[in-house]
């Protein structure tokens, strides 16, 4: 079978397409899955480009979707032919957060889905949404689940709330779509006026060019009649957080997700205190969160916005496309 591996070298040139033996039959509790699609996330880019350390020969890509080819002894939740989608934290099935790293995350601590066949514990997958194709399902485990967790699990979103989303990457577009589906008002930012038009098309009430309007936090307050937003889905990190705090209503909540502008920095702590605001850090979610989200997506009709699809051998080009910020929504790799 074909698989992509991370070898020694510079940047994305480390990605090498190789041949490998197909795994054998699944053992007790395992399923064999023919992988049909992966989706790109910033985390996968960081692993592949060498910004995060990983083992020589690691198969990248956290998100995979495909169909079940064979069932191991004792597996009850899946049947041959089922369409399935991977989970980001296979060891976090349910309950309170238990994970503070990526030691068992596919494509980082363990091999991921840039390969044609995998054998894994059945608990490392959920069913895919009814009627979705593999490319759509592959968009869910990282980006969609993070948006769901930010808005629903930790954000406590309710109809009528105002949500701020930042940029037009995978997490933010899902957050915009989910928030709209749940009756919230969305103020979305982007560095591109062309992309802002597409945000309008997805139902954003207002859009702001964060490069032209540096004090976009103030703009959010003006656009909400001085009240501020209920929830900010924070994918920027240290450079954007002060603006997010300004954008927030008194008693509002920032769900801190991303590192697009770095991994540490200054926080206006007094303003945070005056706002009586909460900052809640999140890392993706549990398998049960994914099951809940898929039920919500099936009921609401929200479908991923797929920017472009690449073939497995073009994985490096797919990441270059992501890094250039040319995309709107998700980028998918077909197998
Ligand atoms: N904590 C978690 O569980 C979790 C899960 C998923 C992702 N993340 C993190 O969340 C971030 C986004 O991930 P992603 O996969 O959605 O990335 P992505 O698809 O690569 O999206 C990146 C987009 O973010 C926007 N952006 C870049 N710099 C920005 C800035 N300074 N202010 C506002 N927007 C900016 C750009 O949109 P425009 O082109 O429209 O300007 C860019 O296209 C990354 O840092 C990633 O590591 C965290």
Could you characterize what this model shows?
- By secondary structure, the protein is of the alpha/beta class.
- It folds into 2 domains: 2-139 and 304-334, Medium-chain alcohol dehydrogenases, catalytic domain (Quinone Oxidoreductase, Chain A, domain 1), CATH 3.90.180.10; 144-281, 3-Layer(aba) Sandwich (Rossmann fold), CATH 3.40.50.720.
- Helices cover 27% and strands 26% of the residues.
- It contains 10 helices and 15 strands.
- It has helices at residues 42-48, 134-137, 140-154, 170-181, 193-201, 216-223, 241-247, 269-274, 287-300, 315-323; strands at residues 2-6, 15-19, 30-39, 63-71, 83-86, 117-121, 125-127, 162-166, 185-190, 206-209, 229-234, 248-256, 278-281, 306-311, 330-334.
- The strands form 3 sheets. Strands 3, 4, 5, 6, 7, 14 and 15 form a 7-stranded mixed β-sheet that branches. Strands 10-9-8-11-12-13 form a 6-stranded parallel β-sheet, with helices on both faces.
- Strand 14, helix 10 (315-323) and strand 15 form a beta-alpha-beta unit.
- The termini are close together.
- The model has no long low-confidence stretch (mean pLDDT 97).
- It binds NADP nicotinamide-adenine-dinucleotide phosphate (NAP).
- The site of NADP nicotinamide-adenine-dinucleotide phosphate (NAP) has 33 residues, from helix 1, helix 3, helix 4 and strand 9.
- NADP nicotinamide-adenine-dinucleotide phosphate binds next to helix 1, helix 3, helix 4 and strand 9.
